[in-house]
Specification:
There is one protein chain. This protein has 336 residues and is α/β, with parallel strands linked by helices. The chain has a domain of 205 residues: Aldolase class I (TIM Barrel, Alpha-Beta Barrel), CATH 3.20.20.70. The chain contains 14 helices and 10 strands. The protein has an 8-stranded parallel β-sheet. Strands 9-10 form a two-stranded antiparallel sheet. The chain is globular, with a radius of gyration of 19 Å.
């Protein structure tokens, strides 16, 4: 650590104890982004890095990416396994087997219910964090036996669900009924957010957009710079008419998709515009108009491109300072 810079205070929560990490911060499992270099950097910073399974084209590629991550860090990291209905489903059983065979013991599931995967993972000592966009789904996930729930508010990138409930309501509503640790997701990008999440009843936060703008994120610099320049109004909600809402960056492509569907179009009318291959080109080539790409409202809080370690340490320091100021106000102390 550079001279004159203090190490961040530890914020011990049920989440840090569960995952054996130093800080209650989890990196979002982002498609095309959750690769070894980012996951390892986040874990090395004392948070939880996540490798995204389906970014890898085959289970064998995932095995190699996990081993590459392990060469970069000896600290805990997890694997995201997103379960979505598709015409040709990925071989989930093979990805599951690779995760276990490679010795990974933390899995973040998202999308559909984790129920089909619970028995296998539980039988191999894998702790599951399931991402939900509603209290009712979080309750069901807890009943299925997940180790923790990531509760995803309307502010998030990607799929926020169809209830449009923001984190300020969703997090405490979930905390009122759940007994497992809660990871607050959607809209978090600085230490004030971490402090707020802890006060609302969460045990930590999940951040995608903030880590997308880290030095180690394997995306083009143009994407990172666009996030730094963007405001909270620079996203679009697409697929609303299809009941499959997704929050993506505002660009010519997302504007076109919104217009087509608003005029009565159907998915085949926009399928070519929203293909994953086009979105991947954005991240790899830096062509911000090549396709749709996910980003959250928290981009309004992202003001620099920084190493993952600096991001984590800054957020923890800010959270500690925020909590200290709030306590002083309550106590009528000198900072009141």
């Amino acid at each position: 650590m550079p001279d004159g810079v203090l190490a961040p205070a530890r914020l011990r929560t049920r989440l840090t104890d569960l995952l054996d990490i130093e800080h209650p911060v989890v990196q979002g499992g982002m498609m095309w982004v959750g690769r070894a270099e980012l996951a390892a950097a986040v874990s090395e910073a004392g948070a939880l890095g996540i490798v995204t399974a389906l970014t890898q084209p085959t289970p064998g590629d995932l095995a190699r990416e996990i081993e590459r991550t392990r060469r970069l860090t000896d600290k805990p990291f997890g694997v995201n396994l997103t379960i979505l209905p598709t015409i040709t489903p990925p071989p989930y059983d093979e990805y599951r087997r690779v995760i276990v065979d490679c010795g990974v013991t933390i899995v973040e599931t998202a999308g559909s219910s984790p129920e089909p995967h619970m028995e296998f993972f539980a039988g191999h000592g894998v702790r599951i964090i399931h991402k939900c966009t509603s209290v009712r789904h979080a309750v069901k996930a807890e009943r299925l036996g997940v180790a923790a729930v990531s509760i995803d508010g309307f502010e998030c990138a990607g799929h926020p669900g169809e209830d449009d409930v923001p984190g300020l309501v969703l997090i405490p509503a979930a905390a009122d009924v759940l007994t497992v640790p809660i990871v607050a997701s959607g809209g978090f990008g600085d230490g004030r957010g971490l402090a707020a999440a802890l006060v609302l009843g969460a045990d930590g936060i999940n951040m995608g957009t903030r880590f997308l703008c880290s030095t180690e994120a394997p995306v083009a610099d143009a994407v990172k710079q666009r996030i730094v320049e963007a405001a909270e109004l620079d996203t679009r909600l697409i697929f609303r008419e299809l009941r499959n809402t997704a929050r993506v960056a505002r660009n010519s492509v997302s504007d076109e998709v919104v217009g087509i569907l608003a005029d009565g179009g159907t998915f085949p009318d926009v399928q070519q515009l929203v293909s994953g291959a086009r979105g991947r080109r954005v991240f790899e080539d830096g062509d911000l108009e090549a396709g749709i790409w996910s980003v959250g409202l928290s981009q309004a809080l992202v003001r620099d491109i920084a190493p993952a370690r600096h991001i984590v340490e800054r957020i923890v320091r800010e959270a500690h300072a925020t909590i200290t100021r709030a306590a002083a106000l309550y106590a009528g102390g000198p900072e009141a």
